[in-house]
Design brief:
Layout lengths: L1 H40 L8 E3 L2 E9 L5 H11 L7 E3 L2 E8 L2 E8 L4 E6 L2 H8 L7 E3 L1 E2 L2 E2 L4 H11 L7 E2 L2 E5 L5 E5 L9 E5 L4 E8 L2 E11 L10
Parallel strand pairs: 4-10, 11-15
Antiparallel strand pairs: 1-2, 2-6, 2-7, 3-6, 4-5, 8-9, 11-12, 13-14, 14-15
Length: about 240
């Protein structure tokens, strides 16, 4: 009888543990599903939502002193745990500039003073970011809430820096100019963004584009490459 009672008690304990595990598992699944549904309702980009252990990774923006972007990235790589972030970068832009009568390719910061970081553990990440010597602040922090980059802002950023070599750099856009001075975007990141272009300066090889950044209208300069006539035009 004692052996049977012991065996019965052991079976009861095992069943209790199984039920607790199942409850915990399904509760976790419910919480994660609710988080995903909430983020989708708030308009998070499907391209900015990666899965790592069934958790959502979002874009956040650090504001830093202009000129320290590379230093901040290096400090993040050295001092912040790899498990707390997915990527850390500041986007660049490819430009064409004239030096002593010769056009040369240069690489500049697209948004000086800002570094992007993607994470699914922003609260823990923020605590470690605060210890970085070059860290200034994490934009979108409102008391205990951390607001990620909105969907439409992530979409234009990803579309512009998308490249085969993953350099996080906006490439040149190719344009042509007709006999009656009509500019056509042939290829590159400006393709299908004509509605956002405020001005094209053919003389300086620059397109001025208005985008939303941190819920504000911002004009960024992107490089263009002429493949048609009027190489010395000043504007379109």
């Amino acid at each position: 009888m004692d052996g049977e009672a012991c065996l019965s008690g052991r079976c009861f304990a095992i069943n209790v543990m199984r039920n607790l595990w199942r409850h915990s598992y399904f509760r976790t699944e419910i919480i994660q599903t609710e988080i995903i549904q909430t983020e989708i309702m708030q308009g998070c980009s499907h391209r900015c939502l990666w899965e790592r252990n069934r958790r959502i990774i979002l874009y956040y923006v650090m504001q830093v002193v202009t000129g320290t972007e590379d230093r901040v990235e290096e400090q993040v790589k050295v001092m912040v745990g790899n498990e707390l972030y997915h990527s850390c970068f500041h986007p660049m832009r490819q430009m064409r500039k004239k030096f002593r009568g010769e056009w040369r390719e240069v690489h500049e910061k697209l948004l000086p003073g800002y570094v992007f970081i993607t994470s699914d553990s922003v609260r823990e990440l923020y605590q470690e970011l605060r210890s970085l010597p070059a860290f200034t602040k994490l934009l979108g922090k409102d008391r205990e809430q951390f607001i990620p980059l909105p969907k439409h802002e992530v979409e234009w950023l990803e579309r512009m820096i998308e490249s085969p070599d993953q350099r996080m750099e906006v490439q040149l856009s190719q344009v042509s100019v007709s006999e009656d001075d009509v500019v056509t975007i042939l290829s590159g990141p400006l393709k299908n963004m004509e509605g956002s272009i405020k001005k094209i300066d053919l003389h300086r090889r620059i397109a001025k584009v208005e985008v939303d950044f941190m819920n504000r209208k911002t004009v960024i300069h992107l490089g263009i490459e002429m493949v048609g006539k009027r190489m010395d035009s000043q504007k379109c």
